[in-house]
């Protein structure tokens, strides 16, 4: 028994020494980047970002970018629980505002982010002074299948039409666009200011039309391409994948107004790469990156130097006029109310 | 090694379960009883008074019970058939039974979406041969959840039943027949009672599996929630671990209750089992 133990000890000591040697050798042969920047993001269009954003940034700053992917809620919760080492986090404004309220982000030194001067004013600090900018603005509007509806859909109110019984989906209240749809419901009730009770009364009326709520846009795309739904509210940036499946799909800005969904970038509190994280944000806002992602139809640009042809701008939230016409919700108000809304939504609408 | 030390073999397993299962479970339970002002069962009372939560609990129980019953009725004849086969065929058939277990529930749920969707295979066939005019709405209803769960858990009950049926002495059946029992009588009065232990274990596996399943209800279910999706919403989306823990404890208690109930039932059906 003792012999066995001894030999195991010797063996493991040997392996350790060997391992130490080999890693030294490795570092001599190829220059390993010294630093790591951990970026928490959704993970869609990863190929595009890897090639056009991460790789050039890695090269310029001699850093390795490590991704942590998942939906807004999951990733924010990881940061909340304090045992993650994320440096930069991409979040929609709804979730980012929760992070701000809970003091999870570092203040940003705007003098270090020179490209801030080039972007729309609304995108500069949507979460409050000193917090991360929006690098893209998406439009929350309506998509529908023109082959399957009797009349073209032009307003939010059209979704309440009885012809659409069991034929639409709506965003779940816990997703970024959920509160926006609730706001639209309040508008339909005829109230100028947001009226919670009237909004929920309207929501109750639309439920017979709803097949299922969607929590992730991929669910919408699936239901739409499988013919389970013929219409529903969705962010414009995903419209291209709908059109691939249903050629006669249409995206409209409802007459009552589309909503602005701002995707923001923030530096996580306690990050040991604060400088680098800010350079990364600056790079995201650069004309170069903004133009590439706009032309690839991945993210609508916020950088005003980006110029798109009409064809390139199709389905994108492009141009100051459109951006300024979008409705923005007061995310602070939304976050204060969200717990009540989620509870009411669960109790009153979901059976 | 003397007999005294043989219990040491259990140590790694017991230690693992204690640290990674028992301690977390008791910690979870503990947090649900204590608030700033000391010991309280208020959290639980609120839940049981809440018609919304009770609705979710009953939907989940109903779905799980129906899934279990359907699985028994589908699984029993199959298991009986398989257990009568020769060793080679039996091994092959069992392999086929286990095969679906090797695919992820996500993939299986998606394949059901393609089958039972509005433009799915099933509806296309039914409308094609003129049996129905409007496509059936099965997807995103509790029925879809039940279909998915039966598909998911049927292998478990078949495997446990085959194990029990193999051990039934063929002589017993011959004896019963020679004493004048009909084929059906032998099946109902000899085979079925002897299978009760397998039925109980199989049903428990199916029931607990359906009760706690997350992926299948999340993908195939519609507007109505089941308890696991409710738990997920509270823990992950709302970050409300207090409520999530209470739901988790309620799930554990319900599971234990159902298991004990089934054991009592089994004793009644087969006192010698």
TrEMBL record, chain A:
Residues 1-19 form the signal peptide. Keywords: Signal. PANTHER family: ABC TRANSPORTER SUBSTRATE-BINDING PROTEIN (PTHR30006:SF2), THIAMINE-BINDING PERIPLASMIC PROTEIN-RELATED (PTHR30006). One of its GO terms (biological process) is thiamine transport. It comes from the Bacteria. The lineage of its organism: Bacteria, Bacillati, Bacillota, Bacilli, Bacillales. GO terms for cellular component: outer membrane-bounded periplasmic space. GO terms for molecular function: thiamine binding; thiamine pyrophosphate binding. The keyword Signal applies. InterPro entries: SBP (IPR006059). This is ABC transporter substrate-binding protein. It comes from Psychrobacillus soli. The keyword Disulfide bond does not apply.
From TrEMBL, chain B:
The chain crosses the membrane at residues 7-32, 52-80, 92-117, 137-165, 186-211, 241-266. GO terms for biological process: transmembrane transport. One of its GO terms (cellular component) is plasma membrane. It is a multi-pass membrane protein. It is found in: Cell membrane. Keywords: Cell membrane, Membrane, Transmembrane, Transmembrane helix, Transport. Residues 57-262 form the ABC transmembrane type-1 domain. It holds the Pfam family BPD_transp_1. Belongs to the binding-protein-dependent transport system permease family. CysTW subfamily. PANTHER family: INNER MEMBRANE ABC TRANSPORTER PERMEASE PROTEIN YDCU-RELATED (PTHR42929:SF1), INNER MEMBRANE ABC TRANSPORTER PERMEASE PROTEIN YDCU-RELATED-RELATED (PTHR42929). This is ABC transporter permease. It comes from Psychrobacillus soli. The lineage of its organism: Bacteria, Bacillati, Bacillota, Bacilli, Bacillales.
